[in-house]
Specification:
This protein is α/β, with parallel strands linked by helices. Helices cover about 50% and strands about 15% of the residues.
């Protein structure tokens, strides 16, 4: 077995079985679904490596399902569309929404296998590139001369060489993942995997399967704990876990073993656990929302990441780093920030912390209005971030009915805070006090594109 799992979604039984036989002959593990609803359920329960998705199906068609997954970041694997009625417009639409390629029926076995192999290889390279970027970026992102950052680096240096578990706290965008990756990169486990699990982004009913994997009919689908074997498991937004899930996580951490969902045998685990949260877990413990025993199990070494407003003297160094990074890695044009521009940045309150600064530098480089960035341009960019929402409130808002005015405010509020958290819907849901499913519906209703915000 290759260990790679492919989901085949097609309403024609003959097609499903033929594709399954072809792929199983090549040692892939294959799951099948005859509808979008079945595909949704399997995607929640299984860790997939690739999806073959038919376009024309009863109910929800393949393009609509692809758009759905793309709109909520619900699928981070390559998708190959298949159709018996292919045309250029359909293929272009599929690619626009993130499909890797487009195959026409009747399927050629040779072309199917080549396309599958290339899609999996491309995805491996993409993820490896992300992993390598993650190993390179953090060290410089924590580089600053302020006393608070010097103290943070000293604490990290003492902790990194140990195998102690760490609980990282800090505001959204302050750099908690950066600290976690830096600890891993400086640890004896640095040659093994760093596995980042955003717990707030996983549906509650799927968290156990994602963490511990699943097993059915003797076939195992490993979870994140097994993926991180010998390395570091980063449990991001751990404060969002439900109490029953907290109990199962605690049991696995204390015994260093767990059972896959549906499994009968224990799996031993050897990982270093680093957890992070922007919540006050001590308060959550006192209110009964977080288990006290799990809190102390995770909080062996506490590390607090300061907000950017507490070390604004580091802004010029951070700007220099992100300038160099984006020029070299993203091929954006270099632009020099004037002293006046840097002064404006130092005097800003940075509600979105370092992430907001990074996004601002990127946006200014993309606009490319000359060799030098002056104070006026920075003020305009900061104003766009804030008043991309606030500027919408002109006198006209008072000349409409209350429902329309409320909707206008809600849209502007969500756009502003989505920009502030760098497009992270989970963090926005936490800040706004909304359930993620309700928030996703709101964003869709208002036509707010989270992908565009992340890429901005």
């Amino acid at each position: 077995m290759t260990g790679q799992t492919i989901l085949v979604v097609d309403d024609e039984p003959d097609i499903r079985e033929i594709v399954r036989d072809i792929l199983e002959d090549e040692k892939y593990m294959v799951l099948t679904a005859d509808s979008a609803e079945d595909a949704r359920q399997l995607q929640k329960k299984r860790r997939l490596d690739l999806v073959l998705l038919d376009i024309w199906m009863p109910g929800t068609d393949g393009i609509s399902l692809l758009k759905e997954w793309a709109s909520v970041d619900d699928l981070d694997v390559p998708v190959i569309m298949i159709s018996g009625h292919g045309n250029v417009e359909t293929a272009v639409e599929a690619i626009r929404y993130g499909a890797y390629d487009f195959l026409e029926k009747p399927l050629s076995t040779a072309k199917l296998l080549v396309t599958v192999e290339r899609a999996l290889q491309s995805d491996r390279l993409r993820k490896e590139n992300v992993r390598l970027r993650g190993r390179l970026e953090p060290v410089a992102a924590l580089d600053g001369s302020s006393e608070v950052l010097q103290a943070l680096r000293k604490q990290m240096a003492r902790v990194a060489s140990t195998d102690s578990w760490v609980l990282i706290t800090g505001e959204p965008g302050s750099g908690k993942e950066v600290v976690a990756r830096s600890l891993h990169n400086q640890s004896p486990r640095r040659e093994a995997e760093f596995v980042h699990v955003s717990l707030a982004a996983i549906p509650t009913q799927s968290i156990l399967a994602q963490l511990f994997g699943t097993e059915e009919n003797g076939i195992a689908w490993p979870g994140r704990f097994e993926q991180a074997k010998g390395g570091t498991l980063f449990l991001d937004e751990v404060g969002d876990l439900a109490l029953d899930t907290q109990a199962k996580l605690l049991n696995a951490l204390e015994e260093s073993r767990f059972m896959r969902v549906g499994g009968q045998q224990y799996v031993d685990v050897d990982v270093r656990v680093i957890a992070a949260t922007n919540q006050d877990l001590e308060k959550a413990v006192s209110e009964g929302r977080f288990r006290e025993d799990l809190y102390y199990r995770l909080n062996v070494v506490p590390i607090h990441v300061p907000p950017l407003r507490d070390h604004v003297e580091d802004v010029p160094q951070l700007v220099d780093f992100y300038l160099g990074w984006m020029v070299e890695k993203e091929q954006l044009p270099y632009r020099r920030f004037s002293t006046g521009a840097l002064n404006v940045l130092r005097n800003y309150h940075w509600p979105g912390n370092v992430r907001e600064l990074k996004n601002l530098v990127q946006r200014i480089l993309i606009l490319n209005r000359g060799e030098e960035v002056n104070a006026n341009e920075v003020e305009a960019a900061l104003s766009d971030t804030i008043s991309g929402a606030a500027k919408q409130f002109s006198a006209s808002v008072f000349n409409t009915n209350l429902r329309d005015a409320r909707e206008q405010f809600e849209k502007s509020y969500l756009e502003y805070h989505l920009q502030r958290v760098g497009g992270n819907v989970s963090e926005l849901a936490q800040f706004a006090g909304m359930e993620r499913t309700h928030l996703y519906r709101k964003l869709k209703t208002f036509g707010i594109d989270t992908k565009a915000v992340k890429g901005a």
